[in-house]
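[audit] Reproducing an earlier prediction to check determinism. Same input, same settings, fresh worker. If the tokens differ from the archived copy the diff job will pick it up downstream; this log only records the rerun itself.
[audit] input (292 residues):
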Amino acid sequence: LIAGALAERVRFKAYCIFIALWGLLVYNPLCHWVWAEDGFLFNMGARGAIDFAGGTVVHISSGYSGLIAAIYLGARRGYPTLTTRPNNLVMTLMGAGLLWVGWFGFNAGSAISCGLDTARALTATQTAAASGALMWMIIEGLHHGKATALGFASGILAGLVAVTPAAGVVQPGGALVLGAVASWVCYGAILLKNRLGYDDSLDAFGVHGVGGTVGAILLTFFIRKSWMDEAAVAAGGSWGVISQLWVQLAAVGIAIAYAVGLTLILLFVVDKIFGLRADRHSEMAGLDDSYH
């Protein structure tokens, strides 16, 4: 996901070093905090921070890191006037379809079983993706007078990202709302990017960072009653939506602060030692040609 934010202007060797360090020092600690039995976010409150399949660990951390990396590295030369537009929407939609199906494994597979929890996660994933795609088309229709294939794919992705932390705890109706709200908020984030002028090539922050944040926080209001009842019993009868909301907000805030801080340090160190930015000739020729 971070690679998408830096596309078309980062040196391959330096990126490989950066992303290896990022995985070790940013992603792995977040995994432990959220999913390990002795992780402090796992044990926060009665039931811990909810992140069923990686909304906080994967999408928020990489989305905000991608934003910092894109700002640190600077825009592509000639951006936005010389930016290459998407040129093969058939391939884009094929990729979106493969991603949609693959996400069933990403979310439902996170149940680490084959049972009711798996079926719930799969159903929520399907519902949110469809809802996100439909909402994006409606927004584009209202804003531009027509829907686009690229927007359809973006809406699918926004819905998938938003339901990732929530897939194991929300009902289909909640997934429907999460997908729709995520599309609306992510669409606004991309419009804001165009106004602010930073160059996040594939909208890693606008879709993944923002969508993950929406899902991780709003899932609190759509948790299945049975899950909340179990949480209340674990907390001695005092656990509820507001308590879980504070846990979710704390987890999201910690993930953002940690990812942003460490990413900035890693970018600075790798840049000073190896140099992150591709030279002008390589960038203008296209990195597919000059590096790959």
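[audit] rerun output stored. Observation attached for the diff report: The mean pLDDT is 93.
[audit] end
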